[in-house]
Amino acid sequence: MANEYHLQMLQHGVVVWNTWRIQHPEIRPDLSGADLNRVDLYAFDLSRADLCEADLSKADLIGANLSRADLYRTRLSGADLCKANLSRADLYKADLSGTDLSGADLSEAILSGADLTGATLSGASLSGTLLIDTDLNGALLQGTDLDGAILIEANADRIMCKIAP
After folding, report:
1. Which residue in 12, 44, 48, 85 has its CB near the most CB atoms, within 10 A?
2. CATH number of the domain enclosing 1
3. Which residues pair with 85 in a beta bridge?
4. What angle, rounded to 10 degrees, do the helices at 4-11 and 14-23 form?
């Protein structure tokens, strides 16, 4: 259950939130189970936040910092995560279907059991990412860095990628 104070701080906007995060680096924001559907979280610092089972469907997370965040079973379908930092984030069983992750940093993230059906990963970094039993059907992987990524039993029957000549 999300911490009410943390939710209130989030509602004050990006400047107040990010300033609060700088002033209180010891606090791990608890936004677990929160309904943040369609919320504007553009450039928010959500690093190390607990967002387990939160609903971030269709949220604007462009340029957001979600590094080391706990996103277990989080609903992110249709969210805009362009250029977001998700390095070392735990996205185990997260719903990322139809999500735009263009240019996002997912290096060393855990995407096991995640649903990336129809997601756009163009120019994203999945370097060292764990993709066990991940659904990549219909995902766009043009220019995606998969160096050192571990794909085991990933469903990638209909991925779309453009091969350079």
Report:
1. 44
2. 2.160.20.80
3. 65, 105
4. 130
